[in-house]
């Protein structure tokens, strides 16, 4: 009698093997620089999620009698201007920088894409109102726009998230609208209109799936812009407030050690650099990089 394989196990095994093969195929197609970028992105995502759990000391603990102490077995990255462990503060700061930037970039990209789809499938006057409003916002330099909002509303974590998202939503809208307008002219979309499909269906089922990859690439750029924006605000003392600290705050509070090349300022600066460079390398290596989306806000 021939043994039979249970259909349920077989059906569960096929999707898993298919997903694994797709991941292997995608990784094999990445260039060396793309793999370096992917490794850096994964590293900072892990540190952003689990950094405080890996910290050897409490973030605010004064653990060294020397300020701006060098590397040692007890303090791998030395101590800061108050004698606190730099590695512990760096791991804690990564959580704020990566977490805030990731959430703000997701909100900016989702809002921009949603407004772009709405403008594309709505009557022309709706498109004009949304587009002119976004043009007004995008005409204001991003740093000035963020500084005005911080001065007006404060710099709590929730407000920083919303301010960073609001600052870069216009740029995300502009990119997504250009994609959606082009897709809206395609034959398959016009056929959907001719069938009498509703605007919501056309936006979500016909246009949105075909603009996902460019929007994801633009999301990576928004993430980099927001990391730099939040770090700049923190360097000015307008970002994450004590006792919390992000990577930009760590640079600002240890600026007095710059002349001596203290690790307390070099480590967070290098962390910001490797995070943003890693994301850029990964974006450059994505499929369709010849049509890479560029632009600021």
Secondary structure: elements and pairs:
Layout: H1 7-28, H2 32-54, H3 86-121, H4 124-138, H5 142-153, H6 157-184, H7 187-194, H8 199-207, H9 212-235, H10 247-253, H11 263-285
Membrane topology: Multi-pass membrane protein
Family: Belongs to the binding-protein-dependent transport system permease family.
Organism: Nitrospirillum amazonense
Any key phrases for this structure?
297 residues, MetI-like fold, mainly alpha
Brief description of this entry?
It is a multi-pass membrane protein. Pfam families: BPD_transp_1 (PF00528). This protein has eleven helices and no strands.
The count of helical stretches stands at 11
Low-confidence stretches: none
Whole-number count of domains: 1
Topology order in helix (H) and strand (E) letters: HHHHHHHHHHH
Whole-angstrom Rg: 23 Å
Query: Level of helix content?
Result: 55-70%
CATH domain topology: MetI-like fold
- Biggest sheet, open or closed, and with what strands and sense? none
Structural class: mainly alpha
Strand tally, please? 0
The CATH architecture would be Orthogonal Bundle
Mean pLDDT: 86
CATH class descriptor:
Mainly Alpha
Pfam families: BPD_transp_1
Protein name: Peptide/nickel transport system permease protein
InterPro entries: BP-dependent_transpt_permease, MetI-like, MetI-like_sf
Family: Belongs to the binding-protein-dependent transport system permease family.
Q: How would you sum up this structure, described in words?
A:
It is a single chain. The protein has one domain (50-59, 74-291): MetI-like (MetI-like fold, Orthogonal Bundle). The longest helix has 36 residues, at 86-121. Helix 2 (32-54) crosses helix 3, helix 3 (86-121) crosses helix 10 and helix 9 (212-235) packs antiparallel against helix 11 (263-285). The chain has helices at 7-28, 32-54, 86-121, 124-138, 142-153, 157-184, 187-194, 199-207, 212-235, 247-253, 263-285. With 297 residues, it is mainly α.
